[in-house]
Specification:
- The protein starts with a helix and ends in a 13-residue tail after the last strand.
- Residues 306-313 have low confidence and may be disordered.
- The chain has helices at residues 4-31, 34-59, 75-104, 112-141, 146-152, 157-185, 189-218, 224-235, 270-287, and strands at residues 240-252, 255-264, 293-300.
- The chain is mainly α.
- Strands 1-2-3 form a three-stranded mixed sheet.
- It is elongated, with a radius of gyration of 25 Å.
């Protein structure tokens, strides 16, 4: 897909988080709430993360060089991986530390109503950002579930923003829960409990993102549907008997490498072989536009089976 949709979601999250971070920090200075401090650091981390995602999009557009002949498309995976690490260290680790610290040394809140107002406004802004991410993701999600989209998407920014925004929304609810109970009961321990809940939430989200971004960074192949379409198009050619074996790998979110050995009908002239390969490449790109690099090795069908399904390992 084009990076336009993910860029729109990133910018919406960037502006929302920047404003929220300032308001939360002001709220912390007024109330002394550990939940507000944890959420302030969380929003600062999210704002920085969106900047990193935009940087990754920009650097991934660099032209290929002799040292990097396949280009820099994986820059987007690299910066998304850094985002996941930052979410874990600056978000989760800090919130857990602050929560345990305030649990051992609880301090009463001052002007908690200020924190409540700020959190309610922040929930509204974060809802707007989350809605934008959902709208842009639906354009490319297809029929898979949201969890399936996060697991299968080869475009890293949208799953990152989706999970970040979801974490931010739930984090705000947890902060509101902690501040609210601390105000109602007069016991500041509840503020610490809300902070710990935020830390655990961000830790879970960060671990999911780290696992997914690591998988993309080291190289993932085409999805099952894409692989099925590629094989079907290759084998639909008049001169192609079957696909002997095939390997695919995403070099970036919008650039798929396809390497396959195909069995051609015996007795073809060299010119016919070249035309068959050219036609096969065009046919594959018509159904899987991301397949920008296609390398086909012609061979003879020495096995004689035309119905065997190629697999990737």
């Amino acid at each position: 897909m084009s990076a336009g949709g993910s860029t729109k979601a990133i910018l919406a999250a960037l502006f929302a988080n920047a404003g929220i971070a300032v308001s939360k920090f002001v709220g912390f200075l007024i109330t002394g709430s550990s939940s507000m401090l944890a959420e302030s650091v969380h929003s600062v981390a999210d704002t920085s993360n969106q900047g990193l995602l935009l940087l990754g999009q920009k650097t991934s557009l660099r032209k290929a060089t002799r040292q990097h002949p396949f280009g820099f498309g994986r820059d987007r995976y690299f910066y998304s991986f850094i985002v996941a690490l930052m979410l874990f260290t600056l978000g989760s680790a800090f919130a857990l530390y602050e929560g345990f610290h305030k649990l051992q040394h609880p301090e009463p809140l001052t002007s908690p109503i200020v924190a409540v107002i700020i959190l309610v406004v922040a929930i509204g802004l974060e809802t707007y950002s989350f809605h934008t991410a959902i709208v842009e993701s639906r354009k490319v999600k297809g029929d898979v579930s949201w969890w399936g989209f996060i697991r299968q998407s080869r475009t890293p920014e949208l799953p990152v923003v989706l999970l970040e925004d979801a974490g931010a929304l739930f984090g705000l609810v947890f902060a509101l829960f902690g501040v609210g109970l601390a105000t109602v009961t007069g016991d500041p321990v509840w503020d610490s409990v809300g902070t710990l809940m935020i830390g655990v939430l961000l830790g879970v989200i960060a671990i999911v993102l780290i696992i997914e971004m690591k998988s993309l960074l080291i190289g993932e192949g085409a999805t099952d549907k894409e692989l099925e379409d590629i094989v079907h198009e290759l084998e639909s050619g008049e001169q192609v008997q079957r696909v002997i074996h095939i390997r695919t790998q995403y070099l970036g979110p919008e650039e798929l490498l396809v390497a396959a050995k195909i069995a051609l009908r015996p007795g073809l002239e060299l010119a016919d072989v070249a035309r068959a390969i050219d036609k096969a490449e065009l046919s594959v790109r018509s159904v899987v536009p991301a397949a920008k690099l296609i390398y086909l090795e012609p061979d003879l069908d020495r096995v004689g089976k035309t119905a065997s399904a190629p697999t990737e390992s």
